[in-house]
Model the fold of this input.
Amino acid sequence: MQIGLVGKPSSGKSSFFKAATMIDVDIADYPFTTIKPNVGLGHVTKDCICKEFGVECNPNNSICEEGKRLIPVKLIDVAGLVPDAHLGKGMGNQFLDDLRQADCLIHIVDASGLTDAEGKVTKNHDPSEDIKFLEREIDLWFTEIIKRALEKYKRKRRVTKVDLLDILTDQLTGLGIVKGEIKEVMDKIDVKETQKFTSYLRKMSKPIIIAANKIDLPTSEENYKEMISNFPDLTIIPTSAAAEIALKTAEKKSLIKYQENKIEIIGDIEGKQKKGLEFIRENVLKRRDSTGIRKCLNTSVFDVLDYIAVYPVADANKLTDKKGNILPDTYLVKKGTKLKEFAFMIHSDIGEKFIGGLDARKKIKLGANYELKDNDVIEILTQN
Done:
């Protein structure tokens, strides 16, 4: 799974990326700071099931902090997108190519209105226009690819709808779009209605949520309200990447304890730094309940992409792997995933030797077609 961070230059994409991953990247108030994409791991959070089972877990591929399981997800922060990017303007072609394998897009919008459509400093810019142009650019990118597929279709003689599906699948597979998604759209919309077809397919295969960034700036509140009013069907989450970076940096220096929407000052902090942290506490954490960074990731994975968490173990009674680690791994899988499919996700050898599963809660055997549930703990049974 991969989440793409998109937006115009200077919207705060790289700050969002750093806030989510704490990887040092170039951050500046001028366009095209990001040339090559930044790739790293952020984390989504869920209540860990260790409390339910009354055990102390030993996470391997994830982290458990005070009963919260932090599960890694791949993030890619790409070059800023400007109007007419699909024609190659700005870093357009590179931007779009970098997004090919993204499953979901988080559009980081400068809610303050202090940068124009190309990321240059201005006043009173309407962030709603940024939402419109970015969706339009990605739709037009899709349209160009689909048009090329239709040209192939027209050149062939005696082709059927099945042939067209195969041609579109071949043309769009590089975008991470599967045949089933294309067929679903074809059943609803005639491909000849190219723009309508493209928009629907894009929304299905590359859904977008909005991070209304720089929400702590004075000009952001009214713009945020306008965005919600203008786009009632979009998920819009207020964020402050700068605040998240400041809090995580202070925590790393053992100056504060920081958890979601609370901070506790434990170090020696005076002057501007103390005022800055108090400002974040009052104007971001108390007012918004969080900086919004992790909420964006959680919403993308669990609500938009519809993923669930599953805990595979080697011993369903002890909840351990072969080394004795308790609840060591957490896998994010698409809702509807079958048990045998999951076995192959863990390792091809496990999938090949698969004979069934054992539910750690109910202690009942499960078949290959068992549909995984959120927070399932399952021992995979294999041939010796």
Remarks:
- The first strand starts at residue 2 and ends at 6.
